[in-house]
Amino acid sequence: MEINSHALVVEGGAMRGIFASGVLDRFIEHQYRPFDFCIGVSAGSTNLASWLSHQKQRNYRIITHYSCLPEFIDFGRFVRGGHWLELNWLWDILAKECHFDMDTFVHQTIPLFVVTTNINTGAAVYTKATADNIELILKASCSVPIAFRDFPEYQDSPMTDGGIADSIPVIKAYEMGAKEITVVLSRPLGYRKKSPKIPWLIRRALKTHPKLAEAMVNRANSYNQAIDFIENPPADCKVNLIAPPSEFNVARLTTDQTILEQGYKMGINAADTWLSR
Question: Above pLDDT 70, what percent of the chain?
């Protein structure tokens, strides 16, 4: 990337992505695109993809409808040995009923980098999205380990949720040359991630993937390092924050329509505040 560029970074968080959906939908309405590149994680990457393809409310529909259906989210199926979050079904139904506008995406000029986690190394992978890889790397970035039992492969490497290795890739954006970074968070300001109370259970559940298990156990450290960077950026870097208000109470697997609708409107209001500054 060019030195002194402006990056847009969007955090994931499954259903918490409804806030970023509201922010980016308002950006679409105002044709607000002052960014040189963007980096997305999990739901943040799918939100960015729809923003870049100018598909207003696509992710709103995905989160409030498709992601709430029992065909996608079903703990009983998980107990019986299946997927808790059935990404294969979701990707198939979206291709039929809520498809991604690939033509618009490939003809726009802002690069999108999608964060995934390599399950063999536990390290973050930052892949530039193209027409040939975007569907696969978005799916990999949204794959929650254990809840989704498969690991999508990209270039012969099995991948999973990018949020495990780098939940808020602000440091990566800075390393790529960004001197201004606008960050859309999925949690209110002041949130700090805590280390898991039962790390042994994670290691046991992922005993065949020890590097991934360690990345999950240490996730709080990398998350909080990103927050440290946001709160105290280098002298040559400006960080702008768009975050949910303190009353935002959408959780990772919230399906309550009223709560999701409120979260979406909070994103719209936050974008309005940002655009009117």
Answer: 99
Q: Which residue has the tokens 């500054």?
A: 277
Q: For the chain, how many residues are written? A: 277
pLDDT exceeds cutoff 90 at 78: no
Q: Is 141 helix (H, G, I), strand (E, B) or coil?
A: helix
- Of 40, 60, 65, nearest to 52 by C-alpha is 40
The answer to whether the beta carbons of residues 222 and 166 sit under 8 Å apart is: yes
Q: What is the pTM of this model?
A: 0.95
State the amino acid at position 38 in one-letter form. C
CB contact set of 92 (below 8 Å; sequence gap of 6+): none
d(CA 139, CA 115): 11
Give every CB contact of residue 191 below 8 A, 6+ residues apart in sequence.
227
How far apart CA 241 and CA 231 sit, in angstroms, is 10
Strand 124-128 and strand 153-154: the pairing is unpaired
Q: Which residues contact 221 (CB under 8 A, 6 or more apart)?
A: 195
Q: What is the mean pLDDT of residues 252-274?
A: 97
Q: What is the mean pLDDT of residues 199-224?
A: 91
pLDDT at residue 2, as a whole number: 62
Quickly list DSSP for 15-79: GGGHHHHHHHHHHHHTT----SEEEEETHHHHHHHHHHTT-TTHHHHHHHTGGGSTTTB-HHHHH
